[in-house]
Design brief:
The chain folds into 2 domains: 2-144, Up-down Bundle (de novo design (two linked rop proteins)), CATH 1.20.1440.130; 152-301, Glutaredoxin, CATH 3.40.30.10. It starts with a helix and ends in a 10-residue tail after the last strand. The protein has helices at residues 2-28, 36-44, 49-68, 80-103, 108-124, 126-144, 160-163, 186-193, 227-237, 259-270; strands at 166-168, 175-181, 201-207, 219-221, 241-242, 244-249, 252-257, 283-285, 288-290, 300-301. The protein is elongated and about 80 Å long. With 311 residues, it is an alpha+beta fold. It is 49% helix and 14% strand. Helix 4 packs antiparallel against helix 5. The strands form 3 sheets. The protein has a 6-stranded mixed sheet, with helices on both faces. Strands 5-10 form a two-stranded antiparallel sheet.
């Protein structure tokens, strides 16, 4: 009986916490974030913080009322509090495992909610405690042995060229380049505007999200467009900003970050027929060659909206 009162009080407090987060999300569009990991996790979720907090509020309210009416439901064959608690623990354990093994960032608020749900399971009964610990451990182990890179990355015929939204080229292009960009980045737009005129480069356009159309004349659409692969390329290279220009040459691939450096390269390499020495010699990495990544101003973060104005 005492444990039931403690659990009901704990579920009620958790309900109040998620209710406050729901109101904050409704007003600001994002919940109160206790650390940077919260923002990373929010970007990786297909559900908004408002929906997630509403789900949490409904869950804790359901647990509270099932505990409140536990004696009246004693004749039922279904242990509703125990069933709700194990479902909630499974959900939160999966979220925690994804943050640990895929996102590599922990949301402090998510950790707090997970701790509350785990504690509720431990307080309910010894049987529930054992079942909860085994369930959480099983989910953690399952996530630890999985890879979370998009499956498209392991297909043999996939490349940046095939994953492009489309290409823009003039007659007899002499250079092949890929522009990885975001549709809502003003610095990316500045680079795209520079491509409206004809030049000597064959430009493959690789946005990191789905786009309906590009206001750029002369684009030849690609059937295998994959924004997931374009985003994966940045992740593998440890690049968290756009735009990025990938230049292909006989020596390998070279990368330029930032609108300033990209525009300089385009003006010198694409609007003339002369070859330029824009990079230091390449570094051999495995079977391919990568040059040092060149950085410049004019970048937008991949994980959040760009706040840096155009120069």
């Amino acid at each position: 009986m005492r444990n039931t009162i403690i659990m009901a009080a704990l579920a009620l407090c958790a309900s109040i916490l998620t209710a406050v987060q729901t109101v904050i999300s409704l007003i600001s569009g994002a919940g109160a974030c206790f650390n940077d990991g919260c923002q990373v996790v929010e970007q990786l979720s297909v559900l908004s913080p408002l929906v997630l907090n509403l789900m949490g509020l409904i869950f804790f309210q359901a647990v509270f009322w099932s505990l409140y009416f536990r004696d009246r439901m004693a004749a039922s064959r279904v242990d509703w509090p125990g069933l709700l608690l194990i479902c909630g623990l499974s959900f939160d354990a999966a979220l925690m495992a994804y943050q640990l093994f895929a996102a590599h960032a922990l949301c402090a608020y998510c950790v707090l909610v997970f701790a509350v749900v785990l504690l509720l399971n431990l307080l309910y009964s010894r049987r529930q405690m054992a079942l909860g610990l085994v369930t959480a451990a099983g989910i953690m182990v399952s996530f630890s042995i999985l890879t979370f890179s998009p499956a498209v990355a392991y297909m043999p015929d996939v490349s940046l060229k095939n994953a492009a939204y489309g290409k823009k080229s003039c007659s007899a292009p002499s250079k092949e380049v890929h522009l990885i960009f975001s549709a809502d980045c003003p610095h990316c737009r500045a680079v795209l505007d520079a491509l409206k005129n004809c030049n000597s480069c064959e430009f493959y356009l690789n946005p990191i999200e789905d786009i309906a159309a590009l206001e750029l004349p002369g684009i030849e659409r690609s059937a295998g467009f994959s924004p997931q692969l374009n985003r994966l390329v940045l992740s593998v290279l440890g690049i968290d900003s756009v735009p990025v220009l990938v230049v292909r040459s006989d020596e390998g691939y070279r990368f330029i970050k930032g609108a300033g450096g990209i525009l300089d390269y385009i003006n010198q390499a694409c609007f003339t027929q002369e070859e330029i020495t824009f990079f230091e010699p390449s570094l051999d990495i495995g079977a391919e060659a990568f040059s040092p990544i060149s950085e410049d101003d004019g970048q937008c973060s991949v994980a959040s909206d760009c706040l840096d104005p155009l120069p």
